[in-house]
Design goal:
This protein has 11 helices and 14 strands. By secondary structure, the protein is an alpha/beta fold. Strand 5, helix 3 and strand 6 form a beta-alpha-beta unit. The longest helix has 21 residues. The two termini are about 25 Å apart. The mean pLDDT is about 95.
């Protein structure tokens, strides 16, 4: 079997997780990690590392480039640039900006005759698919998404980008009372603040203005402005000791009726010990699909709504039908 050749752009939490995840996918091999840092500084074994400026020399050596940068500042610039050169998969997670990002990625990937799969992972991604199922199977229903309790990588990275922040981690916590009302089929109208709270632990730089940091975090659009957010300032030692686990998860619950007398509840949940490794696993599966679509001669951007589930698996479709359908 000829293996799918994978490039990894970025070596943060998801990029590091890719090394472990791809090892579990026997139809893939890593060509290299591409970083803005000095490649020699990466703590990595048995995988070549290159500077990100050298990516242009690998267009004929990489089948799919996995974009592991953050959604706040990295992907809006890197995504369209890299999609002209490679088939790409990313986990862009700024929900409100996905339509515009998808448009730009489609233009770039079409110009390069490549495939770009955007906004994969688990939300957006798997949760998005389950929200779609709810809309399709229970017309007129209400679908509710609850996240946590856990660490949000995208939100944590957005906080770390704030001036004066040395390090940070952000927890999303669902409101238990709101979840129970949904599970009881009461179809509540819930505001953003009624569904979740956000807690942020910040390690400030020396002499940083803590009040300014807190206000910038709480007013950040798309991330914190619409939530009850609490900010705690702690030391790097405390962060390392008490907040190093990257667990997460959540629920998608659809509540509706198939007739006047029959309520129906659909619920999908995830409980993740490693958010980065699971996100990486989903991205890798969509890399397989991107490679297959490109081999068929297709071009342009895709979302998880556009790709058949069977394209995510290494097994042949007939084998999947026989084994699990």
């Amino acid at each position: 079997m000829e293996k799918i050749k994978i490039g990894i752009a970025g070596f943060g939490n998801i990029g590091k997780a890719m090394i472990k995840v791809i090892d579990n996918n026997k139809d893939m091999e890593i060509v290299g990690v591409f970083t803005r840092r000095d490649p020699k500084s990466l703590d990595i074994e048995n995988v070549p590392a290159f500077h990100i400026d050298d990516m242009k020399d690998f267009t004929d050596k990489v089948d799919v480039m996995l974009l592991c940068g953050g959604s706040a500042t990295d992907l809006p610039e890197q995504g369209p640039a890299f999609a002209k050169m490679f088939n790409t998969v990313d986990s862009f997670d700024t929900h409100n900006d996905i339509p515009e990002y998808l448009k730009k990625m489609n233009e770039s990937s079409e110009s390069g005759k490549k495939i770009a799969v955007v906004a994969t992972g688990w939300d957006p991604g798997l949760f998005s698919i389950n929200r779609l199922y709810g809309k399709a199977f229970l017309p007129g229903s209400q679908t509710y998404s609850f996240w946590g309790e856990g660490v949000s990588q995208g939100h944590s990275q957005a906080v770390r980008a704030v001036n004066g922040v040395e390090n940070a981690v952000q927890y999303t916590i669902p409101v238990a009372e709101a979840m129970e009302r949904v599970r009881e089929g009461k179809l509540p109208i819930l505001t953003t603040k009624e569904k979740h709270v956000r807690i942020v632990y910040v390690v400030p730089e020396e002499d940083a203005n803590r009040n300014e940091i807190e206000q910038e975090i709480k007013s950040m659009p798309n991330y914190f402005a619409d939530y009850n957010t609490t900010v705690f300032f702690i030391t790097q030692e405390e962060l390392a000791k008490n907040h190093s686990k990257m667990s997460h998860g959540g629920f998608v619950i659809t509540s509706g009726k198939t007739s006047e007398e029959n309520n129906q509840i659909m619920e999908y949940s995830l409980k993740l010990e490693s958010n980065p490794e699971f996100t990486a696993s989903v991205m890798v599966a969509y890399a397989r699909a991107a490679h297959r679509l490109h081999q068929k001669g297709e071009t342009g951007a895709r979302t998880v709504f556009d790709i058949a589930p069977s394209m995510l698996c290494a097994e042949d479709i007939n084998e999947l039908i026989k084994e699990i359908l």
